[in-house]
Amino acid sequence: MYVLLGYALNASNVMYKRPGGAQPGGYSYFYGYNQNEVFPNSQAGTITTFGGATINGRQAYTLYHGMNLGAGIAFKLSNKVNIGLEHKYTFTVPGYDFLDGVRAGNNNDYIGFTSARVNVNIGNTAKKVQPLYWLNPNNFVYSELNSPSHMKMPKVVLPDADKDGVTDQFDLEPNTPAGAPVDSHGRAKDTDGDGVPDYKDKELLTAQKCFPVNNDGIGTCPEPACCKEIKDMIANMKPAEAAPQCNIGSLPSIQFKGKATLSKDAQNILNGVAARINANPACNIKVIGYGASSKAAQQLSWDRVNAVIKYLVEKQGVSESRFIFTYGQDGDANTVDLQGTLDAGPNTVPAPHPNLKSRN
User: pLDDT tens digits for 85-119?
Assistant: First the structure.
């Protein structure tokens, strides 16, 4: 929404209807008189008159000062198009009483005008912008702050001499030893408040009744017998054996076409897989076949898994006990996947539909 106030230089021509009017429709130009009255000073409040014949000391068109006052509302549809509705009054200055060809005696004639508009901004948007009254003057500043394209922003440098994570300007203890735990002000932590910082304290939670402490942060209280026994037990404990891990990683899938016959490419892939299996004795191998839509699909899935395991056992010498036989899963029926695992499972299973076995 907006309001408007401003100066206007106006020119107008008045026509009035009278018997015998020379203009179309029986109208005549106003020359300072009408069929009822002659107005000897019809230029009062104007700049001048012009155009047409000089009659009664004036011409047909009147030039006068005006003041515009109005309000409107506009809606932006895009960067190129906006629509608006506006009403504006034009008041004669200092006052003119013949805009309508009639003298009312109060010199306050004015014009009211309502307009609906559609504005289309023309021009190349790469070189020109939309009208400035649609733009926030701070948009450029916001854009530069969010993503500088014109300003050269210096790299922020926050020195931290002791590398404790608290910059020097806020560090109240700028020479903390490397690795020492510090608080938000860069001071070395002292959890039990015994005056020995944690990085030196060999007894982090000394009870206050055991204060004062020695240079290692150990209090004056004697060590309980149970604690000594526990320490001795811990010292004599043998480290637990590490749990076995399967680090064989991702294994390639085997693709089949038609029946359960291994192609030359599939055999070459299995040769490489066998070397990785033998290099990772902690891993078992889950062999997964797909195809569950019918009895024939289930049997074909079984045949393909069996072909893969049989090749690895008979041709590559991998122990049959390391395989987990899985078939009939939902998925790509022409694919057999190999997965390393620490799980155990059956390495052989009966054929689901032996009468449908494929013949290689």
Answer: 999 999 888 888 888 877 766 667 888 999 999 98
Domain membership of residue 73 as a residue range:
2-120
Q: Which residues fall within 8 angstroms of residue 319, CB to CB, at 6 or more apart?
A: 313
Distance between CA atoms of residues 79 and 300, nearest Å = 64
Question: H-type helices in the chain, by residue range?
Answer: 139-146, 225-236, 264-279, 295-314
Backbone phi, psi, residue 323, to 5°: -105, 150
We report the CATH number of the domain holding residue 351 as: 3.30.1330.60
pLDDT in tens, 23-57: 888 888 888 777 677 776 777 788 998 988 888 88
- For residue 176, being part of any structural domain is answered with no
Q: Which residues pair with 170 in a beta bridge?
A: none
Residues 191 and 204 sit within 8 Å (Cβ to Cβ): yes
pTM: 0.37
Cα 300 to Cα 306: distance, rounded to the nearest angstrom: 10
List of residues 6+ apart from 217 with CB closer than 8 A = 192, 194, 196, 200, 201, 202, 203, 204, 206
Residue 114 covered by a domain: yes
Domains held by the chain: number: 2
Q: Tell me which of 91, 120, 149 is where a domain ends.
A: 120
Q: Which of residues 120, 154, 184 is at a domain's end?
A: 120
Neighbours of 225 (CB within 10 A): 8
Per the domain annotation, does 168 fall within a domain? no
